Amino acid sequence: MHITLTTWSLEQTSPSDLRPSRVPEGDDITIARAAVPSAEYSRFLYTAVGGDIRWNDRLALTYKQWQEIVEKPGAEIWVAYDRGTPAGYVELDPQPDGVVEIVYFGLVPAFRGRGIGGHLLSEGVRRAWDLAERWPDREATTRVWLHTCSLDGPHAMDNYERRGFRLFDTKVEEVEESETPGPWPGAHA
Questions:
Q1: What does the domain layout of the chain look like in residue ranges?
Q2: 8 Å CB contact between 107 and 31
Q3: What tens digit of pLDDT does each residue of 40-55 get?
Q4: Please, what CATH class does the domain formed by 2-175 belong to?
Q5: Minimal CA–CA distance to 23: which of 79, 76, 80?
């Protein structure tokens, strides 16, 4: 079966574009960088966050391919924790000419709807803008961009726009519908 998939690409071109979210009240939310490159942890976050929204593009990757992604100089994963439990993550991919892509961002289903996403995205964008401070061989960030699609959560686009991202491209295509993989076979929301 085919479905219509809309993909929106959004960007910020200055650190002043960021409109940060409030920090969720009453929650013990912390955000920390996963500073040790770990294919296992990266894959865990990817499946835990994207399993119910058809993230499947990386599922066929080998361990070596996952490890190459997390060991790329300048690549970073920032994780939101609720009282020590991983609640979601932002993955930053450094690209040429000072460009940083937010390749993955999202929350584990049980943590959605509590205001954590806006806070995590705000911190992830801040970290994209100051990436060169942690990677001395990296040029200063000139642009932060991402894409979202019609399969993502219903609040994704609104969150990006409220954080100051601007739409620069829209693509509509017919694609083969894929199964929702879940974080493990047979899991569903």
A1: 2-175
A2: no
A3: 999 999 999 988 888 8
A4: alpha beta
A5: 80
